[in-house]
Amino acid sequence: MNGRLSNATLAELPAEVLVPRYDRKSVAPGIVHLGVGAFHRAHQAAYVDACLADGESDWGIIGVSLRSPDTRDALKPQDGLYTLAIRDSVGEQLQVIGSIQSLLVAPEDPGAVLAALTDPRTRIVTLTITEKAYLRAADGTLDRAHPEIVHDLANPGSPKTAHGFLAESLARRRAAGTPPFTVLCCDNLPANGATLHRLLIEFAKLRDQRLIRQDDAGLARHVAEEVAFPSSMVDRIVPATTDEDRARIAQQLGIDDAWPVMTEPFRQWVIEDRFPAGRPAWEKFGVTMVEDVGPFEDMKLRLLNGAHSGIAYLGLLSGHATVDRAFADPAIRQFVDRLWAEAIPTLPQDAGLDTSAYTAELAARFSNTALAHRTAQIANDGSQKLPQRIVASALARLEAGLLPEHLSLVVAAWIAACAARGGTLPEGHFTDPLDAALGELFGRNLPTATMAEAVFDLAGFAKGHPERRKLIELVATRLVHFKQGGPQLALAALGINGKSGKAD
């Protein structure tokens, strides 16, 4: 190998590798992104890269890691450059993305992050921090007792959370007479913009009550009335990068890339068009700008993400390490078709959604053998993901007088997979914010029905919903099947008798 990917080595790359078609030195920052992980680099950063190549040079990205320095440490020696490997079963296209200008690590220097957020050139703040980082209590409100929320309220100048950084920077911009930035949530939350808006207003009210500084007074009203929080829906499958991926990419580039990103050809971004401070012309490159993102979001959460969760937990329990292998299992494939059949009637029927075309496209994406998307990766944080992916659809069916037989099985499969860690599944194979409490619960050897209810109570599933009891009963029935005969019996009880459970 001849060195490492950087501005200086771009010219050495093979001709077939796509590289930034703009002068990176002329790019000015306009976006701060919180949570600069692989998904952001495969999705939003790639769209912005296309806008920069089209001459919109004032939309460079400052990436912020709220936790680990790993991304910064990998990409800083590469001038923020990385390879996006777009893979399908036919082949692979490599593209070097140049839209990330610099990277910051919040725990190391929160002041630098606040400086970037308060810079008048910053007009958009985007977020991919995962569902659990929004720090919601079981009822969906801000978890006021969370240690990091408590810390940020007491130490506004050195925050740890996205809420703390957003609130402090908006307060500083307000005090300086700088217009607020637009906050664009890109995480899989229902009505994600409205959800984050509500949470930040709650956080700002707590700040207002403390009146630590005079410029905090009225921050909640400012956030409520003056700051735009458009909702968005994002979609692109981004498996975790492996050492094998790094070696293969380095061989093709002829130089090393410490952290290339793997993805599929498909990508989608639907955004509510509310950007008072301006935005890139994303629509030129396939982004759908709409008045209401809700129907698109529901379809994606309930059909793609819901199926992904079902595939992940059934796949893990059946010995399948990747999505394509699990989806090739006839029993799991049949289950997914039935899951979609249950979920589709819960979607808005007057929004013009083409669910037949969408599920056909999903089937092709799940079958992509080149991605090797690990079921264990998708299985993470199920307690945070299942409410919007599965439980919402199940409750909608019950409200309509219909049984969510397959939807309830996904919840049971999640519980069974969590309980299997340290036994038939490796300890720590996947994680959940409730792991400690779940472990204590599993250790009590409760009757299945009691266990199902206890898990619902712990996770806050369907809290206060009139159909909650019926859903718990259905999940408990499925759990009995998992305990007695694993996924084979659980699926067979639904009339699915394909050849399931063959380990890869």
What's this entry about, in short?
The chain has helices at residues 38-42, 44-53, 70-75, 110-118, 147-154, 162-176, 192-210, 219-226, 243-253, 294-317, 323-327, 330-343, 355-366, 375-379, 382-399, 405-420, 435-442, 448-459, 468-492, and strands at 29-34, 60-65, 82-87, 92-97, 100-105, 124-127, 182-185, 232-235, 261-263, 268-272, 288-290. With 504 residues, it is α/β, with parallel strands linked by helices.
Structure description:
There is one protein chain. The protein is an alpha/beta fold and 504 residues long. Helices cover 46% and strands 11% of the residues. It has helices at 38-42, 44-53, 70-75, 110-118, 147-154, 162-176, 192-210, 219-226, 243-253, 294-317, 323-327, 330-343, 355-366, 375-379, 382-399, 405-420, 435-442, 448-459, 468-492; strands at 29-34, 60-65, 82-87, 92-97, 100-105, 124-127, 182-185, 232-235, 261-263, 268-272, 288-290. The protein has a 5-stranded parallel beta sheet with strand order 5-2-1-6-7, sandwiched between helices. It has a 3-stranded mixed beta sheet with strand order 4-3-9. The longest helix has 25 residues, at 468-492. The radius of gyration is 23 Å and the shape is globular.
